[in-house]
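Re: weekly structure request thread

Next one in the queue (197 aa):
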Amino acid sequence: MDLNSKYFDKIRINKGRKKDEAPKVRTCQWAGCDKPGSHRAPMGRGREGEYYELCIDHVREYNKSYNYFSGLDDDAVVRFQKDALTGHRPTWTMGVNRWGNQPPIGGGADASQRIEARARGRARPAGGRTRKLKTLEKKAFETLNLPHTASDTDIRSRYKELVKRHHPDANGGDRSSEDRLRQIIQSYKYLKQMGFC
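Done, posted below.
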């Protein structure tokens, strides 16, 4: 690096004061004290970010008697401490979305009862599926040779039956039906992933 470059000659640094000017030191803000106020002490609640400038002796005395919560009742102190856990930012209860509050499922039931109620709400109707099947779902049902309205127990039992029939160990080591076995396994995994069994 060339320190005699034309670019380095044009760099100017302003430190906020001139070289011959001494740094400004305020005097202690304690009544009747003329020492330099080189230490900061907070002004108190409601004046966050503002400080007294005190000398070392008076800042020690000030800190001994300083109480941020002076003048607050016990309930206000507890509320402040609770809000401090979240950084005094607003929070929302669990289960609330942008569309508004929704009461918990099952009223005042405990968590396990609410989970069971949600599972019952998501259960498929007994008469079969209500939505239209996707292409891969249709293909998976066709691979397992099942109707689209088959229950989860039907899917599992057909899967077990087909795996036993097409597995090479069941066919005396014959690997001719290995591709069919792969298709059956993939179809079952897909149906399981999509929540059919």
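DSSP finds seven helices and two strands in the chain. The two ends are 69 Å apart (CA to CA).
Next request, please.
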